[in-house]
């Protein structure tokens, strides 16, 4: 009998081990090339891009529960995904229409001039999948699948990517595809996602033919890691150990620009420069998705606390307002939507402090009653960055000196037009403001972004420790006002408000208009003196060849 038992164990034990391995570590089968996938043989999908399937998506599951794969890798990533939020009302409205008429809504909302807008598609898809996890609405997943299939067909046109900004393809699109791979349920769509990520990012540090570093390395590497982790093929990390070490160092928050050096990157005092622009949008966009994936690989994510610390230092405890331009090129002065989308689990721990960032020239003053930000001009750091849609806001980026009051926070607009910016305190426009004045800020044909620099003459910013005083001296030339026009600004901010001395030497050939009064200042006291004469309306004109000194204040 013992001999028989021994024989049975020899036969049965390997079978049990194989069964356990299959059950707990089931791997996806690496798909065949997409052109061999019979699921893509739909004639509507094979024809011209904007002739995608016209029939509505049918047989949607009504259950609110989300199917979870038994695959251990998928389950690990599924559990690590923390970006779960309710779909914004506008997106919900679109989803209702899209599920009935997918082709019509797709072409209406996501195609311009026959070219699909990958940024809008990817952003909407990411929002849908995040809401799908939270709400369990299978329609959101089905719409995302339709978006991915249509994009996959469109990307067969090799010229499409060249018509998009690289970020929209290499970052937003791959993020969407990676998210679907571990949240979605359709294997055909997962195969599309896997193949597309590898075509865009064939190696974890190379995307669209360019070797990425710093924050860009994070953006392209994490989707690559996701898809290769699911397909059990992470050899690329071992083939380029130095680059992977750089990735880990950056995500740990210790990859900072060395003292005395200049260039792009994170500085010890937490300034962040990206492509010569002082901005925090690249860090804020490096949200919980990326850090969650890193945690599943048991890697350090010290940068997460650095970013949260920056948010706490910039934000007021009771308001969502931020400096214009610090979180992106759009003329938006709040960050609530960005935080909800990228950092839904961020808990604000902001304090009422004064803080300066010497490298970027940024300063913030936060009191119980208001928040105030400004950035003085710095050498080798752009004064303004524009794109094809946002190119009219340079004066607002450089000059707006607005006190955002807690008591009036619901009365401020969160997105500003060019006209509204011209009425903000500190901003200088031409008296005969013309549309074509701003054409110079448009990127050249074939470009997506354009940076604009000032000539810095004096640049100082500081604070007086416990005295709660923020002060600055900002003297510069900016070509928008002519090559020889000099703007010389000195100011102080305290708990009582704002005091500014502004001298404008106008050599533009036209009359300049300086706005000093905030019409939405509530019960604060406004005073303005121009060359010894009181000015009550807060609008000062500076004639060509004139030098005008303006002293103004907004105080309690």
UniProtKB/TrEMBL annotation:
Keywords: Membrane, Transmembrane, Transmembrane helix
Annotated protein name in UniProt: Uncharacterized protein
Organism: Cotesia typhae
Transmembrane segments: 7-25
